[in-house]
Each structure stands twice: as C-alpha cells, then as structure tokens.
Amino acid sequence: MIEINNVSKSFGSLEVLKGIDLKVEKGEVLSVIGASGSGKSTLLYCINALEPIQGGEIRVDGIDVHGAKTDVNKLRRHIGMVFQQWNSFPHMTTLENVALAPRIVLGKTKAEAREIAARQLDHVGLGDKLDTYPTNMSGGQQQRLAIARALAMEPDYMLFDEVTSALDPELVGEVLDTLKMLSEEGMTMILVTHEIPFARDVSDRVAFFRQGVIEEIGPPSQVIGDPTSEHTKQFLSNVR
Amino acid sequence: MSESINIAAQSASFFTGFKLNDLWYLAGAAGHTLMIAALAISIGTVFGVFFGWVLSVSRWAGAATLGLVLDMFRSVPLIIQLILFFNFFPIIGLPLNPFAAGTIVLVFYTAALVASVARGGIESVPVTTRKAARSLGLTYWQELFYITFPIGCRSALPAWTGVALGVLKDSALVSVLGYVELLRASQILITRTQQPFIILAIAGAFYFALSFPIARITERLERRWQS
User: Residues of A with CB below 8 A from B137's CB?
Assistant: First the structure.
C-alpha cells in the first residue's frame, strides 16, 4: 500500500504540492488528472524518492520513502516508473536495456537476466525486436520498451507519468493497450494522464489535481461522469 | 643536453648527407614521441574525466576552484608551462629529467582540455534518462558507469579525438627541454645534413603515421555507435 500523508513539496519558493493525502491499495488503479503544473507528475517523482519533499511523509508498504535510514535503491526495486520521455538507453539493444537492472541490481546471472528481459519484451509485444537498438524503433515501441524495463524488476507498484503525451497520435493506442493489459493482470498502478476516456475505462479511482491539492477524488463514474467541483467540470469540458 | 651538444659538435666537423641509418634514428625518436604522447593522453584522459565529473557535479564550487586551475593550464601557452615547470624543480632542489617534466606538464595540459570535453559529455546525457536508470534501483555509481559514461562518451568522442591529436602534435614542444623526440631529432639531423626538406618531410610522415590510427579508430567507433 502507498500512503501519502499531508505531503508538501516546493521548488524554491514555488509550492507545487500543498498537503496531499492519498492511499493506494494493492491491486488498485488510480488515475491522476489535472492541468499542467498542478503537481501530478511531481507526486510520482516524490513517491519514488527522485524528488525530496518538504513536509509530511510517504510510506510504501510501511517504509518511509524519505526517511534518513531508508535505502532508496532497495525501495525503488519495488516501484517501477515510466516517464513521459521514454528514456531508452541508446547504447544498448532492446534486450540489454531490459536485462541491465536485473543483472546489476538484482544480481541475476547474464543468462537469467536475458531470459527475464526476453519474457518481458514478449509480454509488451516486442518479442521480435530483441536485438534492435532503440533509436531504430518508434516512440510507441520505445515506450513499451520502457514499460518492459520497469516490469523486469518485478515491481509491486508501477508509476506512469504521462506516458502517452510525447507520442504521435497514431502510436498512443498501442501503449494504452499495454497499460490496460497490466491493469487486467492486477498490477497496482498510479497513472498521471491526459487520456480522460482511458482513465475512465481502466481506473478504480480518479483524482483531480488542481494547484497542488486534490480537488476531487472518487470512482471514475463520479469524478469524470458526474463531477461535483466546478473546477473539475471546467477542466473536463476544456479537454474534451 | 650534453648529448645533443656532442652531436652538434660532431656535425660541425663534417656535413654528411641523409643515410638509411638516420631513418632508424628518426624512427626511434618517433617512438619517443609516441611514448610521451601515449602517456600524456592516457593518464591525462583519466584525470580529465575525473575533473570533468567534478565540474559537472559541483558547478559553482567546481568552477571557482578546479575550473580556475584548469583554465590556467588551458590558456597559458604550453611552451611557457614546460619551461617554467622544468626550471622550477631544480630551484627547490629536485631536478627532473626532460622526459619526466615534459610528461607531467603534458598530462595536466591534456587533463585540462579533456575535463571540459568530459563535462560536456556528462551534461549531454538527459537528466530524465539518468532518473529513469535510478528509478530501476541503480545506485549513483552504477548509473554513472553503465549509463552516463557510455552515453556521454559517444557525444564527447569527436572532441576528445581533437584533443588527442592536438596533444600528439604539441608534444613536439617538449623538445625545448632537450628531450630528443621526433622534432628534436629532425633538428639534429638537419644541422648535420643540411637537408631540411627531406628530413622534415620524413618527420611529417611519422607524425601522420602516429595520428592516422587515432583518427581512423575513433572514426570507426563513431560510425559503429551511430548505427
């Protein structure tokens, strides 16, 4: 379970998160929607300890993410993250991209790591691209590679930061299909997304962020289908 | 120094034309150039990459201290550095031979040039790529060695090649300390034979033969990395 208690986060004098409270249960899919700059992506970075926080606490399976004694490298093995920019490692083949972390972080043998990588790449539909370099693949394929790379660590949680925003429209579908497949397999996911219909389709709950606070949270049928907040209504009518 | 005076004294007594033996003499001197340049480039690159990393990590503190020292090495003409350094050690009672003094100065000169190249390479790696690697559980050092260095290496390679070729040629300046490398050997032969054209052409050919492999190997690496 991911527990976020009264978290605040600033970049200099700019307060990006203003006391966020949130719980995500095992197996749940939570979508986070909201305008750019509302703090959605920052929250994901904080859950993974890629950004420090200024107040409150975040616990993942009871471990204080920003605790002084916490081994963040160990913690991150349980939390996969996929970014807006797919961030492939350009000097490695697809297979090597995925096999790297199992080998050097989990200490698997080369053969084991390659086996894990091949399985995960096959899982996201890249089974025929094992020896291809990422620069020779489309954005959608590279984004699925990034998903396979995160899954190879067998994480308990997956964080997705606007993973379709940088893609050409015709490539969005293949990545969303992969996300949907993961949600159906029971993966616990937090999705920061602008794909409102998709969020409505796959999520157990949807949170609407506005100016660093959660304006509204609940089942998609309510938050997207019948929002109570004026701001949510306005945001949804703008993106539709 | 005494050796070259000897040779100069001999050559004053009789001028003789260029002989096959002189070619071996030049080849040996080219070996000295290769040795001093190889030491300077390899050790200087190791230091330079380390300095470049320091500069990329601590921009303000690094630029104010280390950056300033490196700027001095980069901007003072190499010949002045060589002469100052070579004459400084006897003053404090630790005479250095020309080879050691030349190598040390060239190492720092190379390191200063490589430092900015290496910093550029490290900073060319997108922050999000580095974060993506960290999000997989890689430690800081694992990320640096498996991700940032290899990717940065690719973008820094052309500039590094320029530095390496430059240092190889600049190593000729060590001749002012009396170390008999390719240029110094050519001068000695010219004094004896009075045939500057042929000897300088041969020396030039040796420099080319030393530089060409560096240029070709790095070019091939670049092409392989691009595909």
Answer: 73-74, 76-77, 101, 105-106, 153
